[in-house]
Amino acid sequence: MPPITSPHNERLKELRRLARKRGRDESGRFVAEGEDLLAAADEAGWRPVERYCAAGSGLPGTEVEADVLAHVSQLGSGTRALAVYEQRWADAPAGPLCVYLHGIADPGNVGTVLRSALAFGAASVALGPGCADPFGPKAVRASMGAVFQVPLARASGDVAALPGTTIALDAHAGSGPLHGPLGEPATLLIGAERAGLPEALLEACDRTARIPIRSESLNAAMAATIALYEATRGEDAGDHRMSAA
Amino acid sequence: MPPITSPHNERLKELRRLARKRGRDESGRFVAEGEDLLAAADEAGWRPVERYCAAGSGLPGTEVEADVLAHVSQLGSGTRALAVYEQRWADAPAGPLCVYLHGIADPGNVGTVLRSALAFGAASVALGPGCADPFGPKAVRASMGAVFQVPLARASGDVAALPGTTIALDAHAGSGPLHGPLGEPATLLIGAERAGLPEALLEACDRTARIPIRSESLNAAMAATIALYEATRGEDAGDHRMSAA
C-alpha cells in the first residue's frame, strides 16, 4: 500500500480529533506517540486499533509520509510511530493501595502520578473532578507508558467509593506526618497545588496527613510521589529493585 | 514614556538573546516571566536589571504593547510581566545538604529539583556536566521561584569538591536503601534517568544508595525529591510545616 501523503486523509483526521478531549470522549480511543511508548503498550498486552509509521522507517503500521506524520503529531516533529488504542477504565478504584486525584488539571502532573503509581506498586489511580484526561497526549507521554499498566478509574469525589482507609494529604500543620508502611488497604487523596482538597472531602476522609516541607508547596506529582514512597516504605518491592538515578 | 510597540526594539532583542544559552552565558543575565515569579524574586531580595510589563497593566516596569510582549515571551501568550536579572553562582557547592546533578539535560527536571531542594532545605544545588542551564526559561519556570532562593554552583564532576559524605543514588540492586535522617553533612548525587551516574563518579563516592521501586525507573526530579525527603526525614522543618496537597 502506498504511504499516506495528504494531511487531509480521513484517517489522519481521526488522529487529529483524538488530540482533543471531546474527540477522545466520543470515540473512547486515544493516541500514543513514539516507539518507546508503543513498545510499552505492546509489552503490557495492548493491541492497537491502528498503527502508523513514517514512510521508509521499516516500523510496523500504515506508512505516512514523514512530514505529514510530523504534522499530525502532538509532541514535536521527531515522531516516527504512533498508534490508536481503546481507552480502558476500571469499573471502580481498586486497592490495596489507590491514589485519588482531585482537580489536578495539568496533564503532565497526571501522567507523572501514573508513573509514580507504577513505580511504587499502587493498584489503581482514581481521577476525580477537575483532573486532566489521563489519555490526553501530554499525560500519556509523561506517564512513560504507565498509562498502559496502572488501572484507571473515574471517581465522583465520593470518599465512600474509595477503597480502604482514606488518607487526605493535607496542607494544614495540625495533621501528623504520613508514616509508612501503612499496613492496611488505603487510598491516598491528593489535591491541586494551591486549592488543595475541598473541605467536605477532607472531612469525609478517615484521616489527614502531611509531608513536612520548608517551602510553601510541592506540586501534586511530587506530593503523590513522596506519599507513595512513604506509604510503601519497607515493603518488599519484588524483583524490580531499581534506583531512580 | 510611551510603551514599546515594535518587536524590533533593541531592548526586546536583548530579551530574545537571553532566551538562548549563549546569550545568557555572554551576558551573565537571565529572564524570569510572570507576576508570580517576579514576586518571588522581589521577596528573595533580587533586584531586576530591567523590568517590563504589558501596556495598561498597571504593573511596574517599562510598558510594552501586549502583543509585542507576548511575542518576546518564551512561555506562552499570557505573560504580563517579565524582568531581567544578573545570574548568581556560588563559588562552590555548600552543605550541610547539597544535591549534585549529572547529565540532567531536561530544564523542567532541573527546575523541579531546585523546587524540591527548597522544599527540603538543601543548602545548594551543584550542576555537573551535561545539565540544563538553571537560568533558562523552562528551568526558571519549573523552579517556581526556587531559582531565587537555592544557591547554585557549577561543578566539574570532581567528587572531592562536593561537601560532606557523597552518596550516589544508584540503579544497582546491590546498594542499600537510602535511610534518613542522614545526621551528617552530605551530597546526594543524581544522574540522568537512563544513563545514571558515570562509573568513575560512582566509584569515587563514599557510598551508594537506592530508592526501592517496582518499575524500571523514576525521572531525575522524582528521584531527587524522594532522596531529599528521605535525607531530611524527621528533621525539624521549622515554621513552614506545610503539606504538599
Helix/strand layout:
Two copies of one chain form a homodimer.
Chain A: H1 10-17, H2 21-27, E1 29-33, H3 35-43, E2 50-54, E3 62-64, H4 66-72, E4 81-86, E5 97-102, H5 107-119, E6 124-127, H6 137-143, E7 152-154, E8 165-169, E9 186-191, H7 199-204, E10 207-209, H8 220-231
Strand residue percentage of chain A: 15-25%
Binned, the helix content of chain A reads 25-40%
Counted by DSSP, the helix tally of chain A is 8
Give the domain tally of chain A.
2
The run of helices and strands of chain A is HHEHEEHEEHEHEEEHEH
* Integer average pLDDT of chain A: 91
The major β-sheet of chain A equals: 6 strands, parallel
Task: Return the CATH architecture of the largest domain in chain A.
Answer: 3-Layer(aba) Sandwich
Distance between the ends of chain A: 44 Å
Quickly name the level 1 CATH class of the largest domain in chain A.
Answer: Alpha Beta
Low-pLDDT windows of residues of chain A = 237-245
- What class, by secondary structure content of chain A? alpha/beta
Shape of chain A: elongated
